[in-house]
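// run 5 | inverse folding | seed 20
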């Protein structure tokens, strides 16, 4: 979101000037990845980055985090949050968490549109389908059934494209990062796939999955330690700073 980015950039630049300290720009996704690698000790994983604003499958190669697949419309977290509003679920502590808890009580599965396009996924059609038919669906399914069905469908899509990326890269590690990454059902489904492939799953809880300042500080410290010294006039903000635009100077593996 542009406004929060602008406020934080002003504060950061002010602090940099007052204390004469260098200022390092950080890509949000890179912050999630490096925090995940630090906490879980994953070495060179295929990364599933899932949040309210992003859904990407990522692998490292030649000093870049390469995007192998992503959503072509809305992020998986956005899909879950908007469906929570359709069901009038509370925002406390978060819509996604409330869907996860409701889904545990669901028993009847509703077949939903399953939209995987090569290495990419699409969630807007699933959401539109449920929004348009919600009145009819609630006559046959409970809200818990619908939460369960939505989770199972969108998470299966994510597991599929993650497995395909692993096969392409010859990877035996998966790291889940981002706010949706703390969903235990997603971790469970990904764990089953990894076990079948003889691979290992790395994930963390909400302390490290959701957005936090430490992940940005850690990624900035890695860049600084590897020699990054951007000029003050480069300390701008952008909402279009893609994961694969970042030169990863701190990794040589």
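// decoded
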């Amino acid at each position: 979101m542009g406004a929060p980015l602008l406020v934080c950039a002003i504060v950061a630049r002010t602090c940099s000037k007052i204390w004469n300290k260098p200022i390092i720009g950080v890509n949000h996704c890179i912050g999630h990845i490096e925090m995940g690698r630090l906490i879980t000790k994953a070495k060179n994983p295929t990364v599933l980055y899932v949040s309210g604003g992003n859904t990407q499958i990522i692998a490292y190669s030649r000093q870049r985090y390469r995007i192998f697949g992503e959503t072509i419309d809305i992020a998986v977290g956005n899909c879950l949050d908007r469906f929570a509003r359709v069901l009038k679920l509370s925002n406390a502590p978060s819509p996604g968490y409330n869907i996860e808890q409701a889904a545990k009580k669901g028993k009847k599965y509703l077949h939903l549109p399953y939209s995987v396009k090569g290495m990419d996924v699409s969630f807007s059609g699933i959401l539109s389908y449920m929004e348009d038919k919600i009145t009819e669906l609630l006559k046959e399914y409970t809200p818990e059934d619908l939460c369960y069905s939505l989770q199972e469908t969108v998470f299966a899509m994510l597991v599929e494209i993650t497995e395909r990326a692993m096969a392409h890269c010859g990877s035996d590690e998966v790291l889940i990062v981002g706010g949706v990454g703390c969903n235990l059902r997603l971790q469970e489904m990904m764990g089953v796939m990894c076990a079948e492939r003889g691979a290992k799953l790395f994930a963390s809880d909400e302390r490290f999955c959701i957005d936090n300042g430490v992940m940005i500080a850690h990624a900035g410290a890695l860049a600084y330690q590897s020699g990054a010294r951007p000029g003050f006039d480069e300390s701008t903000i952008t909402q279009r700073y893609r994961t694969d635009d970042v030169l990863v100077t701190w990794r040589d593996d």
